[in-house]
Amino acid sequence: MKRTADFPCHPPPVVGFADCYIGGFVDGFHTHDRGQLSVFLAGTVTVSTCSGSFTLGPGQGLWLPAHTLHQATCRTDLAFQVVYVDPSLTGADLPPRMFDVSTLMRGLVDEIIAMKYDFTMDDRMSAIARLLVDEIGRAPRIAERLLFPQDHRLRRVCEAITAQPGDCRDIDHWAREAGMARRTFTRLFQLEMGMGFAAWRRRVRVIEAASRIAAGQSIAEVAFDLGYENAGSFSTMFHRTFGVAPSTLRPGTGPAPRP
After folding, report:
1. For position 136, what pLDDT does the model report?
2. So what's the pLDDT on residue 5?
3. pLDDT by residue (tens digit) across 174-185?
4. Smaller CB count within 10 Å for the chain: N or C?
5. Alpha carbon 257 to chain centroid, angstroms
C-alpha cells in the first residue's frame, strides 16, 4: 500500500506505510478523513496549511488532524513514514504540531507499518494505537509553524516572500504591493501576526536556511542566497534565533535546533 487510495473499505483505526518522493515533487492541497502522522527519515519538506507552513527534516514528525487542508513540497528527495489515525480514537483531536520523533514513537510507527492494513485490532494493537496517540500529544513542540495572515493583501505579500526568501526589497515596496500606505501596512501586519514585518521575514529566512543547511548546502552559499552580505552576519542572526551555530544543522552533526 502506497497511497490512501489503496486503503481497504474498512481499514483498522491505525494504518500506515513508508514511501519516498523525488525532490521538487508537490503533493497538491488535499485532505484526509483521518489524522495524519508523518515521520521524516531523510530529506526536507515544507507542509503548508491554510494558516501557515512547517519545514521539516530528518528525525522530525508532523501531526495534522483529520480534514486539515494541506500541501507538501519536497525540497529534496524525501523518505518518510505515514500513519493515519481514526479521529474516533481518544486524543486524536490534537491540533497541528511539529516535534522531534522519539525512539518510542518510531518503534510504534514501525510496528503499525509492519502490520500492513489487514490486521485485527486486538488488545495489543489497541494498546499500540493508544500509546502512539499519547506520544504525539506529549511530544514537545519545535519550530512552530510559520504563520500567514488572514488579510488577503498581506497574505499575497507573505506568499511572495516565502517563494523568494532572499528578496531584499524594503517594506515600502511590499506596502505598495499590498495597496496600502506604509503605516497602514505595518500596523495591520503587527495586529494580525503579533510581530513586525521585519521579524516575520527574518523568521522566513532562518527556516529556509535551516532547511537548506540540513540538505547539505554550504553556510556561505545559504547566506548569500538569502540576501546577507557575508556568512558572519548570517551566522549571528541564526544563532540569535536558534541559540546554536548554523553548522550544527549540517548532515550528521546531531539533532535540529529549537527556535
Report:
1. 93
2. 55
3. 999 999 999 999
4. C
5. 14
Please list the residue range(s) of the chain that carry CATH number 1.10.10.60: 148-249
Nearest to 231, CA basis, from 253, 254, 247, 215 = 247
According to CATH, the superfamily of the domain at 148-249 is: Homeodomain-like (1.10.10.60)
CA 27 – CA 218 distance, rounded (Å):
28
Q: Do 42 and 77 contact (CB within 8 A), yes or no?
A: yes
Q: Give Dmax (Cα) for the chain.
A: 63
Torsion angle, CA of 101/21/158/189, rounded to 10 degrees?
Answer: -20
55 forms beta bridges with 46
Whether 234 contacts 219, CB under 8 Å: yes
CA neighbor of 121 nearest in space, from 91, 92, 86: 86
Distance, in Å, from the CA atom of 89 to the CA atom of 196, rounded to the nearest integer, reads 40
Share of the chain above pLDDT 70, in %: 86
| 221-230: long-range contacts, CB 8 A cutoff, minimum separation 24 | 222/246, 225/166, 226/165, 226/166, 227/165, 227/166, 227/167, 227/168
* Stated pTM of the model: 0.66
The residue type of 19 is D
- Element (H or E) spanning 11, and its range? none
Q: Is domain 4-138 annotated with CATH 1.10.150.120?
A: no
